[in-house]
Design a protein that fits this description.
Elements lengths: L5 E4 L2 E9 L2 E4 L4 E2 L4 E5 L11 E5 L9 E4 L4 H12 L4 E6 L1 H6 L7
Antiparallel strand pairs: 1-2, 1-5, 2-3, 3-4, 6-7, 6-8
């Protein structure tokens, strides 16, 4: 892991902004626990997974007017979104990981 890498944890995605005496801190200056880290990369696209909630700007001129939520259910579907983002056809605005979604769900049932 390096300075400015994106880190995927069980609590979501963060960006590393500091290392102090064997501790890692994110962009909100909160400590990232090593045992919670799932993966890291300098490119946020590398740590996305199927079932993550992606907010994508699909407007052709990046005017910010058409931001849509998308949840790729399969790896193939995720790869299609990533390809369009890399080509500049879409712009990734926000990500909510499937771990975050699961941790904040209220199960309705008996």
């Amino acid at each position: 892991m390096e300075f400015n890498d994106y880190v995927r944890t069980k609590n979501g995605i963060s960006k590393i902004v500091a290392f102090y005496s064997n501790a890692i801190f994110n962009d909100k200056y909160k400590r990232i626990e090593n045992n919670l880290i799932i993966k890291s990369s300098p490119n946020i696209l590398d740590i996305l997974e199927p079932m993550d909630l992606l907010y994508i700007d699909i407007s052709p001129d990046d005017c910010g007017g058409i931001v849509v939520p998308r949840i790729p259910e399969t790896l193939d579907e995720l790869k299609k979104y990533i390809k369009k983002i890399k080509l500049g056809e879409y712009i990734l605005k926000y990500v909510v990981t499937h771990e975050q979604l699961k941790n904040n769900m209220y199960e309705v049932g008996e």
